[in-house]
Amino acid sequence: MPKVRISPELEMFYLVDDFTDPWRKPETILLLHGNAESSAAWYAWVPRLARHFRVVRPDMRGFGSSTPMPRDFAWTVDVIINDYIRLMDTLGIERFHLVGAKIGGTIARALAARRPSRVLSLALIGTPPPRREGGAAVIPKWVADFEKHGVEHWARRTMASRLGSTFPPEGVEWWTKFMGRTPVSSQIGFISNIAYADISADVPQIACPTLVITSEGSGIASVEQTRAWQQTIANSELLVLHADSYHVAASHAERCAQATQDFILRKMAGH
Fold first, then answer.
1. In principle, which of 125, 130, 205, 213 could form an S-S bond with 113, CB 3.0–4.6 Å?
2. What pLDDT shows up at residue 269?
């Protein structure tokens, strides 16, 4: 399995998918998955994107096949950003297009703002607001639930709003089991430190072309709330899907992948 030693405590698993013409030198897309997921979350995106781009999809520290993190690990947004930058440095990729889903979009916004020389374009798919209220009240309840029941119980209880009313039952079960494999220690540390991270100061600093995709019935933010922060990014566009899910990168994967590809190709062409 392809892994990179990022730091003494982390071996990061990653996949590279590249089905471009062998005589071309394609640009690279870095895909950042959300909480309790891994690189496998992008299964429906890869067939479309990898024909035109080199696609890099890592497992965030603590998740998937990357090293699990102890419960008391000192998670910060900058630690996660540095992990991804070290991976891209190891692969010899200086500049790349960046795509983040759910809280992967929180990390992606901060990365684009704090490392602007590295990011060619940004796509944010079903991502929460840059500042989320209520964490102090919710997180202790979540931690107690993870300690008592594990991650799968939480995933199953919250999956309806995540994937919406039209997702097939077999798919709901797959996503529940998939997310449920997350180590409890990683999940507790991540939820406690990253889930409600405030990146509101970063968002107006994003300079690259940016696409934001949300849904009419998203349970994590209204269209108006999403538009409010999207419009603080100078060169940005908002796409609203007719859906009642918030994880539209999964529930409407082909639509989101096509929109992201079209956006990147249009920006590469200077339009």
1. 205
2. 87
